[in-house]
Amino acid sequence: MSLKRYLTPSLFSVIVLALLYATGIDRVLAGSNTHEINLKKYAEVQQKIIENHVDETSIDELYKNSLRGFVRRLSDTTLVIEGTPLDTVFADLKISSLRQSFSHFERAYLFLANNTTIEENLDERVEDAIVAMFRPLDPHSVYIKPETSERIQDEFTGRFEGVGIQFQVLDDTITVISAISNGPSDQLGIRSGDRIVKIDGESSVGFSEQDVVRSLRGPKGTKVTVGIQRPGNRQLLDFEITRDEIPIHTVDSSYMLDDKTGYIRVNRFAATTHEEFTRAMRDLRRDNMERLVLDLRGNPGGYLEQAVRMANDFFPRGTTLVATESRHARFTSEYRARYNGPYREIPLIVLVDEGSASGSEIVSGAIQDHDRGLVVGRRTFGKGLVQQQYELPDKSNVRITISRYLTPSGREIQKPYRDGREKYAYEIYTRDDSASGDVSEFISNVPDSLRYRTVAGREVFGGGGVVPDHIVDVDIASEAFVLMRRNNIGTSFVRDFIDRRGTEFREKWEDRFDAFRTDFYWSEAEQETFRERMVDAGMVVSDTVSTVHFDDGNKLYVNPVDVEEQLKSPFGFMKADLARQIWGSEYYYPVINDEVDPMVNISLSLWDEVMNLKAMRDEALAREGMADDFMRN
Fold first, then answer.
1. Interval 211-232: pLDDT, tens
2. pLDDT score of 153 more than 90
3. Looking at 457-547, which runs of residues are DSSP E strands?
4. 459-483, pLDDT tens digit by residue?
C-alpha cells in the first residue's frame, strides 16, 4: 500500500484556509509532497484565471468543469461516484468563491487519494481537471505540461543547448537533414544524409522525435557520442559531440529578389526576432536594397513586444502601432513608436495568409491602417488576444488571455470563438478555397460597427483577421504534392539522391548556389523514378479521368495531359529540399520562390500600387495637417 493513502482533509484544510485568509492563494501549500503540490497547483490556476483573464469568469463554472475533468478518465470505470465528493451531478450547488471551490475540490481529491481499491495517477487527474477548467475560456488560454513548457520556452527565447542538427525520423532511423551552421555537429563534419543509428553506444533505431530531442539536447559543455552510418561508407562513424548553445532562427531567409528589392521571411516573433530582422535589413541595404517584401505568411505570432519593435522600424516616433484593451487597467495600454524607424520611408509590401496570426496581424494591421505599405495575399487567421504565461509549482505553465489588441484604427482583429475551440481552430479550413471568394463572403457579413477607415480613408474591417489590400488567388500545392507529402515520397527521394549522387552533386554545385537556382533540373531518369514512386503510392494515370481528384481510398486520379502540371510543384519542392540539405535552411525559400510560389513574383508587379497608396496617405495627412499623427475614421 502506497504512502499516498489514508490522508485526511484536516492537514490541508488547516494550512489552506489559514493561508487563504492571511496571504492569499499564491502561498497556499508548502513542501514537496505530491499532494500538496497538486492541490497548490489547482488553487493557483483558478486564482490566475480569476485575477487575470480578459473576460469576467464564473468561479462556479470553473469548478464544475474541473471536477468533470477530474473524473472523466478514472482508470477504474466501475467506481461509484454518485453521492460522493466526486459526484458531478451538482443539484443546487453554487460555488461563489475561490475558498469554497478549493474546499470542494480538496474533498474530491482526498476521497480519491484515500480509495484503497484503485491505484490512481493523481498528477494526471489534476492535469485533466485543469484542462477542463479552461474549456469555458477563450481558445488561447491553455494549460502547458512541464515537458512541453521547456520546449516552447526554448523556441521563443530563440536558443537551446544541444548538438545542432535538423533531423527527421525516416524508416525508424534518425536522418540528418542539415547540421546547423557553425554548430557543434557542423564543426565535426556531420552532414545531410547521415543516419544516427547509435546514441551513447545504444541503438537509436526506432526512436520517436521526442526520444531524439531528449537524447541529443542537453546542457552546454556536456558530451554525447553518436554512431553514424554515412551513405557510401560501410564503416560506422563515431562522433563525440560537445553540446553547445544553438540559436533558433526566426528569420528563415533574406536575400535580394532583384537589384532593388529585398526579401525577408519571418517565421514567428521570438526573443531574437527584432535583432535578426535588423541584421538582415543591414545586409540587404549593403546590397543596395531600395524596397522590401516582408513575408509573414504562416507566422503565428509570439512575443507582442517583438512585433511592436518590428512595426516601429517602419514609422516615425509617436505613431500609434497597437493598443491593448482589458477589464484590468494594468493590461490596458497603447503602444506608440518610441523612435524614428530607420525604414520609415522604404516602399513596403507585406505578404500574409490564413496562417498569419497575432504578431503578424499587429505588424500588417499597423502597416495597413496607416497606409504605410501594401498588404498582399489572403485573409489572416484572426487572433487578436494577448496572453500572459504563469509558472506553476511543478514547472508546468498556464497561458491566460489578459487583453485584446486593437489596430491603430481601433478595429479588433479577433474572430469569434464562442462556438467552441474545435470550430474556432478549424475555421480557416471552412473558408472559400478562393481567397477573393473568402474575402467577398467575409465582407458581406461585417456589420457597420466593425468597419473602419485608414489614414487615406480606405475601408478596413474588424472581427476576423486582416483583409489584404491586394488579394492573391494562388494555390502552390497541387493534388500530386499532397500525395507526395502524405506518403513522404519527396523527402525519401531527395535522401536517396544524396546517397547515390551526393559527392558528385557537391563537386559540381556546392560553390555555385546561384547557378543551381537557375540551371539545375531533375534528369529525365530521376523524373521517371519519381513518377514510378508516385504510382506505387496511389497515383492512377488514366485518359478516362476528367478532373484530378482523390477517391475515398486516397488514390489520386490524373489524366495524362495533367501529369506534367501536377508534378511541377513536387519537383520544385524537392529541389528546394535539396538546397536546404546541401546549403542550409536559409537556402530553401529562394528556391521555393523561384520554382513553386508565385506570390513573391506577383508582389514584384505591385510597386505602382505601393506608390499610389503613399501618395494618398501623404495627401490625407497634409490635408489634416498631421504629418506624424493618426486620426481614426
1. 888 899 889 999 999 999 887 7
2. no
3. 459-461, 470-471, 539-541
4. 999 999 999 999 998 777 789 988 9
pLDDT surpassing 60 at residue 401: yes
Looking at the annotation, which residues are catalytic? 358, 369, 383
CATH class of 251-474+607-624: alpha beta
Percent of the chain's residues with pLDDT above 90:
64
Look up cell 497556499; give the residue.
Answer: 28
Q: Let me know: does 161 contact 217? Beta carbons within 8 Å.
A: yes
What average pLDDT score do residues 519-537 get? 95
Beta-bridge partner residues of 557: 540, 549
CATH class entry, domain 159-247: mainly beta
Q: Indicate the DSSP class of residue 162.
A: E
Write the CA distances from 391 to 149, 150, 281, 397, 431, integer angstroms: 9, 11, 36, 4, 36
> Does position 17 have pLDDT exceeding 80, yes or no?
no
CA distance 13 to 86: 18
pLDDT of residue 151: 65
Residue type, 361: E
Positions of E strands within 476-617 = 539-541, 549-550, 556-558
pLDDT of residue 552: 77
Q: Tell which residue, 252, 364, 288, 261, has the closest CA to residue 591.
A: 252
The amino acid sitting at 10 is: S
Taking the C-alpha atoms of residue 19 and residue 110, their distance in angstroms, rounded to an integer, is 19
Amino acid at residue number 334: E
Q: Could you count the other beta carbons within 10 Å of the beta carbon of residue 572?
A: 20
d(CA 271, CA 305): 9
HSE, side-chain direction, 13 A CA sphere, residue 205: 5
Same fold, 159-247 and 251-474+607-624: no
Q: How far is CA 35 from CA 11, 12, 106, 527, 534, in A?
A: 11, 9, 10, 62, 55
Q: Where are the domains of the chain?
A: 9-137, 159-247, 251-474+607-624, 479-596
Q: How far is CA 489 from CA 232, 493, 494, 580, in A?
A: 22, 6, 9, 17
So what's the pLDDT on residue 633? 33
What pTM, to 2 d.p., does this model score?
A: 0.83
pLDDT, tens digit (0-9, with 9 covering 90-100), for 49-76: 999 999 999 999 999 999 999 999 998 8
| Cell digits of residue 244 | 553547445
Q: Are 245 and 235 in contact (CB under 8 A)?
A: no
CA angle, residues 17, 18, 23, in degrees to nearest 5 = 105
Cell numbers describing residue 15: 494550512
DSSP letters of 257-286?
SSSSEEEEEE--B-TTHHHHHHHHHHHHHH
Q: Is the predicted pLDDT of residue 281 greater than 50, yes or no?
A: yes
Rounded (5°) CA angle 78-81-83: 145
Q: Which three cell numbers stand for residue 163?
A: 548538438
